[in-house]
Amino acid sequence: MSGLLLDVAVQPSSVGPPVRAARYLRGGPQLPRADFQLRPVPSGFAPQEQEYQQALLLVVALAGLGLGLSLIFIAVYLIRFCCCRPPEPPGAKSPPPGGGCVTWSCIAALLVGCTGIGIGFYGNSETSDGVSQLSSALLHANHTLTAIDHLVLEMVERLDEAVRTELTTLEEVLTQRTELVAATRGARRQAEAVAQQLQGLAFWQGVPLSPVQVAEDVSFVEEYRWLAYVLLLLLELLVCLFTLLGLAKQSKWLVIVMTVMSLLVLVLSWGSMGLEAATAVGLSDFCSSPDTYILNLTREETGLGSDILNYYFLCNQAVSNPFQQRLTLSQRALANIHSQLQGLEREAVPQFPSAQKPLLSLEETLNVTEGNFHQLVALLHCRGLHKDYGAALRGLCEDALEGLLYLLLFSLLSAGALATALCSLPRAWALFPPRNPSASCSGSHLSEPFLHARLEPVPHLRSFPSCRRRPH
C-alpha cells in the first residue's frame, strides 16, 4: 500500500497546472526607448546588451537635462529680478505690490514639498518591503535546496553503512545456506542501486551559485539605499521646515542659508529622479517577461540542465519531473529490500538466531530511509521552489516597483517645489523690513508672522505714550 501511495506521489499532479509566477505580475504599456544615436531599442530586458545600457543611460540623461533647464530658468529669473527691477521712488516706505503673492507662493511650494516627502517615505518603505520579500524567498529556497542535499547525503550514508556492516555480517552468519546468502547479496545489490540513484537527486550539490549569498548581497545594497533615501528625505524636510521658520521670523540669514540648501537638495532630487526612472524602466522590462531571462541566467551561473530549470521555474504539466525515473526506481528497490528482509527473517532466524540482530538493525535503517525518502519526494516537487520563485517576483515586481514609482513622484514634486521656492525666496527676503531698535520700547514687535505685504503705507509713529518720562 505504501509503495502504491509513493508511486502516486512521484507522478505529476493531475489536479491542474499551478499558476505561473509571471501571471501574478501586472503588465502594462512600455515606453519607447532609444540608444545614444536615437535608434529604437527593443523593450526586452537585456542588461548585457550595449544598446540597452545606452537606453537606460539616456533616461538618466533626461533627468540631467531637466536639472540643467531648471538651473537655467532659476538663474535667468533671479538675474532678471536683480538687474531689471525699476528704481524705487525716494521716500517710499511701503513694500512693492505683489509681495504677499510671492510669500504665499513660496509657502505653498514648501507645503507641496512636504507632501512629496510623505510620499517618499511611503515609497521608500514599499521598496524596502519588496526587496525584503525577495531576500526571504531566496533564503527559503536555499533552505529547501540544503534540505534536499542533507536528506540525500544522510540516506546514502545509512545505506552504505548497512552494506558494510549488517549485510556483510548477515552473509557471514548465513554461509551454510546458499539460497539465503543469495537473497542477502540481492538485498546488497538493491541497496547499492538505491544509493547510486539517490546521489543523482542532489542536483544543487557543487553548484557555485548560492541563494544565501545573493540574498545577502541584495540586503546589503538595499540597506544602504534605504538609509540614503531616509537621509535625503530628512534633509529636505529640515530645509522646508527651517525655510518656513525663516519666513515666519523674517530672518534674512536663515532664509539665505536655506536657499543655498534648497539648491543642493534640488540637485539631489533630480539625480535621484534619474536613477529611479532608469531603475523603474529596467525593472518594468524585466517584470514583463522574467522567465526567459532568469532561466538563461541561472543556466549560465549553475550549469544545470534545461529540464531541471524548466521544471522548477515553470512548474506545469507540460514539463515532466526530471527526477521521476530515479524516484520510481529507488522506491521499487526499497520495497524489494523490505520484502527480502522479511523473507530472511522468516527463513533464517529459526535456524540462525545470531542473524536476528543484524536483521533488526537493517529493518530500522530501512524504515528511517523510507521516511526520509517520503520527505525527499515532497521537497523535490516543483511546487515548493516555484512558490518561492513567485514570492520573489511579486516582491520585486509589485512592491518594489510600486515603491520606485512613489519615489519617482516624490522626486518630481520635490524638484518642482524647490525650483519654485528658489525663485521666490530671494524676492521674499528682499521684502523683509529692517529691524527697528526703537520698537523694543513699546514692548511689542512690529513684524507680522510671515511678511509685511500690505499695499498702504504705514503711518509713522512719532511718539509712544508709554515711553514718555514722567517728571518726578
Report on the architecture of this protein:
With 472 residues, the chain is an all-alpha fold. It has helices spanning 2-10, 50-83, 99-164, 166-173, 178-199, 211-249, 252-288, 290-302, 306-314, 324-348, 356-380, 382-430, and strands at 33-34, 40-41. It has a two-stranded antiparallel sheet with strand order 1-2. A hairpin with a 5-residue loop joins strand 1 (33-34) and strand 2. The longest helix is centred in the first third of the chain and has 66 residues, at 99-164.
Spans of at least 5 consecutive residues with low confidence = 1-29, 437-472
How would you sum up the global shape?
elongated
Measured by DSSP, the beta-strand proportion falls in: under 5%
Helix percent band: over 70%
| Overall number of strands | 2
**What separation lies between the terminal Cα atoms?**
120 Å
* Class derived from helix and strand content: mainly alpha
Strand order of the largest sheet: 1-2
DSSP summary: helix tally: 12
Q: Evaluate the radius of gyration.
A: 38 Å
User: What's the story with the biggest beta sheet?
Assistant: 2 strands, antiparallel
Average residue-wise pLDDT: 81
Secondary-structure element series? HEEHHHHHHHHHHH
Short description:
This protein is mainly alpha-helical and 472 residues long. Helices cover 71% and strands 1% of the residues. The chain has a two-stranded antiparallel sheet with strand order 1-2.
